[in-house]
Each structure stands twice: as C-alpha cells, then as structure tokens.
C-alpha cells in the first residue's frame, strides 16, 4: 500500500463527489444514511462489501442503487443451491472452427451483485476466492484479468434461515466490510420502501444492469489511496490486530480464549484503506485515530470469530472489539 499527499482542495472535491453519490443512492434506498455512507466508503476503497440482514429490508436495493450510481459494467448473479462455479467464472466452448475458446462469466464486470450468496454451495462460493483477492479468474490453466475497478457487492440471509450455507472464513476475510441492515426505524421509512417497490418501473428481472462510465469511481479510488496515514497510526492498527489475536489464545495456553480467530494481516490492510476512504469522505486529507475507530466495527467484527461458549453468554464480536479499542492506546494518548 502506498501513501501520498492529498491537498485540501482535492479532499474537498472528493467530499463533493462523495456526497453526490450518497444523494443518488439515497433516492432508491430508504435506510440509515450511515449505511449508505459506509457502503460508498467501501466502494471508494475498492473493497468488497457484504450486506447482511433478513429478506425484504433493502439489501439488494442498496446494492443496485450503488451500482447504478457508480457506473461501469454491472452484472447480477442470483445464487442458488444448483449454481455451478463455471456459471459465474466462465467456461470453455468450441467455436465454429472447433477451436476451444473461453466464454467469460458474469464475474467479468466492474460491479458484481452477488444476491443471497450464502444460498449457494461451498464449492460455488469458493470460486469467488481468487476473483476477490487476485482480481483474476483461472480456467484450464490460463489466467484472465478482471476489469478495474472490480467490486463484489454480496447480500446474505441469516444463517438460521432454511437453505443457507455458512460462508467459509477465507471468503469472509476477503470482504472489506460487513454491513448489517435491519428494519426501518419508523413507519415513514417502511412506507417509503413499500411505495418505492410498488411504483418501481425499472426491469428488476434483468441480470445485466445498465451502467455508465467508471472514470469518477476510479478517480475516487486512486485519490483515497493517497490519503496520508502516518507511521504512528499504522502502528496503532497493528496494535489493534495484536490485541484481537491475544484474545484468541486458548485458556490452556494461558490466554482468555474469547475468540476462535483474531484479525488477519489482510484485515489490517482493509482497515487502513477503509480509514483512508472514510477520512477523505469528510474532507480530511489525512487519517486520524478517530477515523480508524469509526470504521473498525464494519471492517473487523466479521473477522473476529467469537468462541462458541463465550457466544452462548451473549457476548458479541462488537462487544469484544469495543474492549479492544478501549484497551489499545491511541497515538494521541501515548
């Protein structure tokens, strides 16, 4: 990861573009403004986002609205138990000359809407791993690069629902953020969502959505990665990761045994990138410890697997993360 210098003027222009995107998305999604802002932060950081919640609360509506606002090529994949890996990555076929050719699958898009991702079998889910991390697909020994930007926006239903599979830890770790979407806060929000669904005249059945240019989002991605992240704040992120790993040391080994798994190095990189994007979305050309703390719940909690016995007592990953952020001293308090 490289860190450059972003001028105050460039940060202000980024914030204007960011707020415009928030406004566009909010016309189609009537949930919390914080959810919209955090989802676009993830988009500007070129990170994959997992939208979590029960059916009917607007997960797909948010993903579609973001895809249309960002532009580029957009494909929607409805994940089902009978979906095969080649249905999403692509497969070989014989052309008119009986030569073997590769037909790209729907992953070859700027934004991929993976709807109800945890309804597909683990084998099909694993087909996303290489694409999400390496941004390429391998078929018959040949690797094919995916377009840039490449962002997966996935929705999943609660695991208690019938016909769902748990996402493997390796796949969960590839999502920069997991954002939970719950019921609207009041009756007016519910009425807005119902009114939108009833009056919508766009073709919701198509798998290929109309997209525009990607110049704006590419520019935002490049700018966000140049936001200043000072060495002491990078060390602060490392200390946060170390504390989560300390929680994962078993009691037999002298630890607390609160977590089955702490945060990986990839999680630290994701936290840094998300903090950069969050900082400049507020017009700041540099990251502060507050920016890191504000995005940490969205970036880290799905990577902190709570011990089964601890979870039975009602303790959540968010509770443990709050303890971590209280324990680890930020640079301004050292």
- CATH domain fold name of the largest domain: Rossmann fold
H/E element sequence: HHEHEHEEEHHEEEHEHEHHEHHEHH
The CATH superfamily label of the largest domain reads P-loop containing nucleotide triphosphate hydrolases
Number of DSSP helical runs: 14
Helix content: 40-55%
Structural class comes to alpha/beta
Sequence stretches where pLDDT stays below 50 over 5 or more residues: 197-212
Mean pLDDT: 84
* Shape descriptor: globular
User: In CATH terms, what is the architecture of the largest domain?
Assistant: 3-Layer(aba) Sandwich
Please compute the radius of gyration using only Cα atoms. Answer: 20 Å
Specify the biggest β-sheet. 6 strands, mixed
The total number of structural domains is 2
Short account of what is shown:
InterPro entries: AAA+_ATPase (IPR003593), ATPase_AAA-3 (IPR011703), CbbQ/NirQ/NorQ/GpvN (IPR050764), ChlI/MoxR_AAA_lid (IPR041628), P-loop_NTPase (IPR027417). This protein has 334 residues and is an alpha/beta fold.
